[in-house]
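[job 4417] fold queue: 2 targets
>>> target A
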Amino acid sequence: STQLYSALLNLTEKGPFDVVNATPKDQGLKAWRRLHQRYDAMSGSRKRALLGAILRPGRAKEADGLATLLKWEEQVKRYERRRARDGTRPTIADDIKIAIVETLGPEKFEEHLMLNSEKLETYDMVRAEIVAYLEKKTSTTLISTATAQLGADHK
């Protein structure tokens, strides 16, 4: 505990340093606990805000679809890593994840997923379909842009 206290004192500055410094000397675990509560605690309002961002991500442009999906999945992981007050870890059911990601992209994208919903039974299957769809659309856009550029260069 003494070594942890010294390490925290040496590695922190400004606000975190003040938290460690306000802890009785040689009580490194207590200092760590205070830092964790102050800077990593998932308060009720922060947890609700994160859940709100997960449940209502908004539509992304087709070009930003993959980045938006990855960001959304990171938010889900962060939410599911946090323990509830009773010590359990919350999870978001596959059906809820599917319903949310269906609305992430443009309406054409949502329609594509709905038309193929019978074969897309799990989140992993839906995710694979989304990635394939976005990669195909992105490569088609890149090819069209390159073709247009080549045509302009030859004139």
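>>> target B
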Amino acid sequence: FFSSRRRHTRLLTVTGVQTCALPISGKYADAAAAYDKATGMLPAGPFGARAKLGGAMARISGGRTAEGEDALKKLSTDASQVAPLRAEATYQLFSLAQASGKNEDATKYLEQIFQLAPSSPWAQRAMAMRATVATPAAPAATAAPALQLPAPAK
């Protein structure tokens, strides 16, 4: 979310390339810390929200799934954030729910994506993924009891 140039925010220096490269090298804890630092330095708005999203995904990738999922849920429901970012956070929640077999949650997240940003790339991805979410099987109709005929007379 940062360019390769150094950016000066509130007299502190953030190098976006370093922050974004940490997850690639498998240093998820360092990446989460760097994103948290960036979140504290950036003003509220899209850039700060992208840093929060990056931190959430670094936590998930580093095995701190519950923390990352909580952060994604906060972003997903934060009405002060822009709709496409909220849709992206919701899409990530959908992916987590689908991977863990929580189909009801996955379906709920898909619907939220379509409500938040129906023309976003996240809605397009969700539309493509919609068919892969297993829907609960309809209850089997109870079969009528078999007709009992009397035995033929001998």
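[job 4417] complete. Note on B: The CA atoms of residues 56 and 68 lie 4 Å apart.
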